[in-house]
Amino acid sequence: MKTLSGLLHDLQLQDPSHPLIFETQEGEISPGYHVTELRHSTSKGIDCSGNKEAWQEAKLQLLDGRGETHMSVGKFNGIVSKSLSAMPELAHASLKVEFGHDNTDLRLMSLSSPECRGSRVLIRLGNTRAVCKPAEKFGRQEGGADQCCDSKGTSAKTSSCCSTTKPREDASSCCA
Fold first, then answer.
1. Nearest to 60 by CA among 128, 131, 11, 125
2. Fewer CB within 10 Å, N or C, the chain?
3. Model confidence, pTM
């Protein structure tokens, strides 16, 4: 899980004069991008098996640019540091980036650790996807794949109800 304080720590190890480049599968975010917002929220949810949970989220929103140069690592660090001083709750919440090339189709994206590439610092943004949390949880546990979503014994092996690869066409009776 990437957090804003973790990102700041990683970036403080980089040369502050180097340009900070964010990149998606479609390519680099244009020079002159802008940090439009850092947002913190507390979310509550219930999954398809009836499990309730609560978590903290931080979102970094980027506006695609029309400039000639990318923001420096030092300038970005200054924005993040000032934001953390004003809103310390941003520090340890799970961090996602909101971005859309040409400022359209805003997407919620994950981010990699910064990589130094010559005189540039690169952060890759990845697409996020929906998952069935009970299937994901049981799939990771030893011998836990027999129970997917509920105590009735819905099997992740025999049912595509909670499959993380191919959703069932008639999911109205799934899990919940």
1. 125
2. N
3. 0.78
